[in-house]
Amino acid sequence: MSASWLLRRLALILYTVFIVSVLVFGITQALPADAAVTLLGENATAEALNAIRERLGLGDPIWWQYLRWVGHAATGDFGLSMRTGQPVGPEMLTALGRSLLLAVAAILVMLVIAVPLGMVAAVRQGKLADMATGLISYLGVSFPEFVTATLLAMLLADTLQWLPATGYVSPLEDFGGAVRHLALPVLTASLILVAHVARMVRSETLDVLHSDYIRAARLKGLPERTVLVRHALRNALLPVVTIVALDVGYLLGGIIVIEEIFAIPGIGRQLMVAVTARDLPSIQAGALIMSATYAVANTLADVAYAVLDKRIRYD
Amino acid sequence: MTDLLRRLMRTPQGAIGLILLAVLAAACLFGPWLAPHDPEKMDFLGRFRPLGAQNWFGADQFGRDVLSRLLVGARSTLPMALAATLLGTVAGAVVGTASAYLGGRWDEAIMRTIDAVMAVPGLLLALLLVSTLGNGAGNAMIAIAVTFAPGMARVTRAVALTVRGQDYVKSATVRGERASWIIFREMLPNVMAPVVIEATIRVSFAVMLFATLSFLGLGAQPPASEWGLMVAEARQYVHQAPWILIAPSLAIAMTAIAFNLLGDGLRDAMNPRDER
Across the interface, do B112 and A283 touch by the CB < 8 Å criterion? Predict the structure, then answer.
């Protein structure tokens, strides 16, 4: 991994954020809502409306409005929420923290389930365990998050009463409560990921198991366990890093629905509230922060891949 | 074509997928005639009636027959998902092929921009677009098409790059054909096979995305019996009548499974050598 490669990846993140910012700004500008009317209500006088248009700079050329918005956004200032009147930036970042907690927990749970599942399926190819994994993968990718979430909530919260159906508790205040409240959302979020990753681990492990160096290891007379854990696992897991990074995109999209259903005040729910209320600054901030998070996650995955796999040289 | 169909039927995924699709197609084409009851007819004595002879899948909070609503609702879900995929695929295929044909800096610029657009999570992009265009089934369809286009462009470009080096494209260039002729008449027809496989699997995403948008209140609007909307409306009655939640959930999942199976079956049928 050379410095110039890292620099190019960094440039790509910046370009990504630039395109996304143009996209988000363009879309929100096209929203059929007059910011001044949204702020003051339908009954505001023409003078009041003009005054606030003046203050917000709504009469300026569009590119100037864009530059001003980007300039402020770069310093974390996304303006004031039209709904609450509070600064949007800090609110969104707090919400992002809660969402990341949910996302990281979901990825960890997913890895604990998906990696063994995929490996077992590969080792016992064509047997019952393999078919079961295949079935789980199929079902996992065929249920949208809102269906999984509603069905799980019905089963575990309403019928069995094991877990609370909605709400969020900060883990700093009440760790046990936080775990109980996060259990259902994390389970929902990890299910779809398990489906993807288990399939990937299975196919990668199969590739590795058919390679010459595994045959060599077996012919040397190493116990099967050592062959699997020491030789196969490492190489099979490498591509998983990439797929997990791609899945962060699914996860961020899924989080919008999951947070909405389980009433978690994360960035997804904030965004839904903003969309419903046509709160422009909040929509812009939420969309930009989410996309930037995804771009950074992808780059981190590429770097991790290069660090883990010494054979790969980026230059 | 018949050969492909025969090979498709020989793979277990393809066979099951086709059977499920036949059921769904029947619901789309003949739903209103197959429905045992009027899907809008309310019956206040029959509210939350459980599964039984009168209502096979039970009745909902207004006493409407769930099975009839599902059958009629197939029309507000499936054609939308298919149209969105088709639109997104065509747009993506044209951009991807053009990018591969132009090559060089143009290709680089187009692909990096597509990478950037794909950095916006799909649901988020669809959400932003729908909130601009306004809520409704048609706008949700357009939003999903736009969301799909970059991914399809990327897939198509990869295939088109190999086509570009073929002799018939070179000879067309030497003949002095216009770029649009080469892109549309020489290259596009030859990149379609892998693109069709990819698009088939995308339909299942489109079904889920469309249902999700409706669930969030941005897609189909009440009193439509769109399946995602049915799930959203059933959530508050889960204590009284879990079946009004479970039935549309399973319908969505079944549709997604059908297209996933068909896509996998097509892949196997088109590349018989790949065992996995």
Answer: no
Angle between helices A280-308 and A62-74 (to 10 degrees): 60
- Report the C-alpha gap between B243 and A159 in whole angstroms: 13
Interface predicted TM-score (ipTM) of this complex, two decimals:
0.79
Question: Which chain B residues touch A30 with a CB distance below 8 Å?
Answer: 132
Helix (H, G, I), strand (E, B) or coil at B237: helix
Instruction: Tell me which residue range forms the domain holding B213.
Output: 2-269
Q: Which amino acid is at A44?
A: A
Q: Give the pLDDT score at B6.
A: 78
Instruction: Give the type of residue at A23.
Output: L
**Tokens (6 digits) for A222:** 């190493």
In-domain check, residue B61: yes
> What letter would DSSP give residue B65?
B
Chain B window 154-213: which residues touch A at a Cβ cutoff of 8 Å? 204, 208-209, 211-212
Nearest-CA distance A13 → chain B (Å): 8
Which CATH number do you get for residue B160? Answer: 1.10.3720.10
pLDDT, tens digit (0-9, with 9 covering 90-100), for A249-295: 778 888 888 888 888 888 888 888 888 887 888 888 888 888 888 88
Q: Which CATH class is domain A94-308?
A: mainly alpha
From chain A, the residues in CB contact with B256 under 8 A are 141-144
- Bridge partners of B59, per DSSP, are B65
State the Cα–Cα distance between residues B187 and B169, nearest whole angstrom. Answer: 7
The rounded distance, in Å, linking the Cα atoms of A130 and A256 is 32
Contact between B231 and A146 under an 8 Å Cβ cutoff? The reply is yes
Q: What is the pTM of this model?
A: 0.83
Cα–Cα distance list, B207 to A62, B134, B258 (Å)? 36, 20, 11
Q: Is residue B276 part of a domain?
A: no
CA–CA gap between residue A188 and residue A148 (Å, rounded): 6
Verify whether the Cβ–Cβ distance A253 to B246 is below 8 Å: no
Domain map (residue ranges) of chain A: 3-88, 94-308
- Residue A179 tokens, joined: 């775990």
In a domain, B144, yes or no: yes
CB-CB: which of B124, B128, B204 is closest to A142?
Answer: B204
What lies within 8 Å, CB to CB, of A209 at 6+ separation is A122, A123, A232
Q: Give the DSSP H/E element, type plus range, for residue B167.
A: helix B167-175
pLDDT in tens, A156-185: 777 777 777 777 777 777 777 777 778 888
At B47, list the tokens. Answer: 């509210």
* CA–CA–CA angle A186, A190, A194 (5° rounding): 160
Burial of B226 (0-12, 13-18, 19+ CB in 10 A): buried
* Contact by Cβ (8 Å): A188, A257: no
Q: CA angle, B182 as apex, B180 and B186 as ends, to 5°?
A: 130
Considering the domain boundaries, does residue B153 fall inside one?
Answer: yes
pLDDT tier, B241 (very low <50, low <70, confident <90, very high otherwise): confident
pLDDT for residue B88: 92
Which residues in chain B have Cβ-Cβ distances shorter than 8 Å to A25? none
pLDDT tens column, B183-233: 787 777 777 777 887 888 888 888 888 888 888 888 888 877 788 888 888
What 8-state DSSP symbol labels residue A222? Answer: -
